[in-house]
Design goal:
Layout lengths: L2 H24 L4 H13 L1 H12 L2
Length: 58
C-alpha cells in the first residue's frame, strides 16, 4: 500500500478517536464510567474504538 493510504487511515483513526472521546466526556455517564471508557479507547486504540462504537454508545 502506498504511504498516502496509511496516512489517510491514520487520520481516519485519529478523527474517530477524537469523536469518541468528545462523546464520552459530554455524556451523562458517571465520572468513573467516563474514565474507564477513555482508558479503553486510549490503551486499546483500534480494538477499544470498535468496542466503544459497538457496545458503549447509548
Amino acid at each position: 500500500m502506498p504511504t498516502s493510504v496509511y496516512g489517510l487511515l491514520g487520520l481516519l483513526h485519529l478523527i474517530l478517536w477524537i469523536i469518541a472521546a468528545v462523546e464520552i466526556v459530554r455524556s451523562s455517564r458517571p465520572l468513573a464510567e467516563k474514565v474507564l471508557w477513555l482508558l479503553v479507547i486510549f490503551l486499546l486504540p483500534l480494538v477499544g474504538l470498535i468496542i466503544y462504537y459497538v457496545a458503549g454508545r447509548k
